[in-house]
Amino acid sequence: MSDEVYDLIAVGAGGAGLAAAVTVAEGGGKALILDRLGVTGGASVFAKGLFATQSHIQKQEGVETDPDEIFLQHMEYTHYLSNARLVRAIIDKSADTIKWIEDRGAVILGVPPLYPGAPQTWHTTKQEGKGITKALTATAKDLGIPIQLKTRARKLIIEDGKVAGVICDDKQGNTLTFRSKTVVIASGGFANNFDMMRKYTNCGEPTVQMAFGQVGKEGDGVKMAWEAGAAEEGVSVIQRGLAGVLKKKEVLKEAPKKSQFDKYITAILKQPTFWVNANGERFFNESEFSFAHIGNAMSKQPFQILFNMFDDDYRKLMEEEGIQVGLGVFAPTGTKVPDVKDALQASMDKDEAWICDTIEELAEKTGQNLEVLKTNIDEYNESCDKGRDALFAKNPDFMRPFRTPPFYAIKGHPTHVGSLGGIKINHKCEVIKKSSKTFLDVIPGLYAAGNVAGGMYSDSYDASHTLGLTLAFAYNSGRIAGEEALKYVGIDE
Ligand SMILES: Cc1cc2nc3c(=O)[nH]c(=O)nc-3n(C[C@H](O)[C@H](O)[C@H](O)COP(=O)(O)OP(=O)(O)OC[C@H]3O[C@@H](n4cnc5c(N)ncnc54)[C@H](O)[C@@H]3O)c2cc1C
To answer: Which residue puts its alpha carbon closest to atom 50 of ligand 1?
Structure first.
């Protein structure tokens, strides 16, 4: 055990932990960063953009967004089950945080709409999320913050009811003790702990989910806080994603390998074509582009899967005119798919995509009920001819018949990018006691930030009004926790 007593220990070197530690060190405090992995950044390296309203980037691009409107939309979206003060604190700090990360070396590229009609709140960065975590890691090093990697936090030290440090394991299993006046838990949730995912969340069977970008998220931080008397909040929420494509037919025990990501087939799977479930039934308006809503709708279908189907006319459209809906920064709207058949080939080899001359063959290959499929195709084609989807009100701009052979189908699997809650916090990111009847009865010195903290959502992430909110929450809540920790230890200037 070292004799050093830090002002703050950040458990986790992702977006939230880095932001908290840098804030404390810049404010004159002594910070320590711990991470169980051998690198900094966590899942924050994979994120493509973060939310802000009224940022200088938006102003430069002439994009108007109204914080009050966004606040009210978010509260409405969450049925007022989110913590209004916390939501407001994050929204109000968001513009300053864009400047803050930029001042520390990250390069903000702009605020492109993620999908047709999307609000321009999503600030993309050079090198994606890694650009920010690299810049903050360099800042932390310049500030002299020790970064203790391969160190897994296991337990909080609580003395006289206050936080006094963290007990950890090193790679060899040795116990290490670090003492501090405050701790921010920023360990990023429990996406890789299948028992917790099964017990607490609404994700369904975790082994059939493709959990992108999450490594070593065993829920240690959430469990440590609960063990120390923290209240629970938002533990059921996961950040669902678009349907994902498998090139390997196997039960998913871990995230798909990077080599499995192919932008063309992933972009094709996203197109608003004719989508049916495992039984051959349409189940929602395919022109709904929020990835959270797509994931939610899929989660209610048999086996949580969908089949994206299109005909040869749509194949030509994608090759000759380009895709109707872009795939984030990878394939913007209008990108021409060089060869659809080629893009599908690896999945076809694994019986995850098919090209068929008849509907009968399509139903047989995909295992769907032929009569149900035929009825749904006829109904859909009739809607396309009339220009009105009387069933699900799909946007007519994206209604194209499914009529011209050959017919194409891709199987889409459920995906998510992490759990979004666990520890109850107030708008200062202080951790609230389980026994508390107010938002003021907190565990002194304990903060939580990023994906471990609840209170921002109700039962679903909102990818319609506040795009980029989870990454923004990590940085903004991390900064707030750092500022509050400085006040707590008495070095608030
Ligand atoms: C592929 C992908 C794309 C995404 N795209 C977007 C996007 O465009 N916009 C958006 O808003 N959000 C996006 N997200 C979500 C966003 O990345 C997360 O919400 C955010 O990164 C969470 O930050 P965090 O600091 O809470 O966790 P993380 O960045 O995951 O950091 C947590 C850290 O804690 C460490 N840790 C865990 N347990 C322990 C322990 N016991 N002891 C010590 N350290 C520990 C981990 O190793 C990790 O380094 C995406 C996520 C993924 C995976």
So the answer is: 47
Q: Confidence class of residue 338 from pLDDT cuts 50, 70 and 90?
A: very high
Give the pLDDT confidence of 64-100 residue by residue, as tens digits.
999 999 999 999 999 999 999 999 999 999 999 999 9
Stretch 3-14: mean pLDDT:
96
Ligand 1 atom closest to Cα of residue 239 = 15
Same domain, 190 and 100: yes
Q: Report residues whose beta carbon is within 6 angstroms of any ligand 1 atom.
A: 11-17, 34-37, 42-44, 46-50, 152-153, 186-188, 212-214, 216-217, 220-221, 417-418, 450-451, 468-472, 474
* C-alpha pair distances (Å), 135 with each of 19, 141, 142, 318: 11, 10, 11, 38
Structural domain boundaries, residue 325: 258-413
Substitution site in 35, 51, 254 for ligand 1 pocket (most atoms within 8 Å of beta carbon):
35
> Is 128 in the same domain as 179?
yes
Gyration radius of the chain's alpha carbons: 24
Q: What pLDDT, in 10s, does the model give residues 351-405?
A: 999 999 999 999 999 999 999 999 999 999 999 999 999 999 999 999 999 999 9
Residue 211 and residue 106 share a domain: yes
Atom 27 of ligand 1: nearest residue by CA position:
188
Residue 46: C-alpha distances to residues 43, 125, 133, 281, 470 (Å): 6, 11, 10, 34, 12
Q: What pLDDT score does 259 carry?
A: 46
Q: Are residues 297 and 395 in the same domain?
A: yes
Instruction: Report the predicted TM-score, pTM, of the whole model to 2 decimal places.
Output: 0.94
**Domain of 320: which CATH number?**
3.90.700.10
Ligand 1 binding pocket mutation candidate from 187, 260, 263, 266 (most atoms within 8 A of CB): 187
Which among 44, 261, 290 is the best mutation to test ligand 1's pocket, defined by most ligand atoms within 8 Å of the CB?
44
Domains in the chain, number: 2
Please give the structure tokens belonging to residue 475.
Answer: 């940085």
Q: What percentage of the chain reaches a pLDDT higher than 70? A: 96
Indicate if 304 and 360 belong to the same structural domain. Answer: yes
Q: What is the pLDDT of residue 213?
A: 86
- Is the Cα torsion angle 279, 280, 285, 289 positive or negative in sign? positive
Angle between helical axes of 67-77 and 84-103 (0-180°, round to 10): 130
Residue 83 token pair: 């913590």
Confidence of residue 16 (pLDDT cuts 50, 70, 90): very high
Mean pLDDT across 154-180: 97
Count of CB atoms situated within 10 Å of the CB of 227: 12
Angle at 284 (CA atoms; ends 469, 264), nearest 5 degrees: 65
